[in-house]
Amino acid sequence: MSDVFPERALPAGPITLRPFTAGDVEDTRTACTDEVIQRWIPLPRPYSAEAAVDWCTKTAHTRRESGDGIHFVIGDAADGRLLGAIGLRRTDWDDLVTEVRYWVAPWARGRGIAARATRALGQWLLIEQGFERLELRAAVGNIPARKTAVKAGLHREGILRNAGRLHGGRVDVVLYALTRSDP
Ligand SMILES: CC(C)(COP(=O)(O)OP(=O)(O)OC[C@H]1O[C@@H](n2cnc3c(N)ncnc32)[C@H](O)[C@@H]1OP(=O)(O)O)[C@@H](O)C(=O)NCCC(=O)NCCS
Question: DSSP characters for 53-118?
Answer without folding.
Answer: HHIIIIIHHHHHHTTS-EEEEEEETTT--EEEEEEEEEEETTTTEEEEEEEE-GGGTTS-HHHHHH
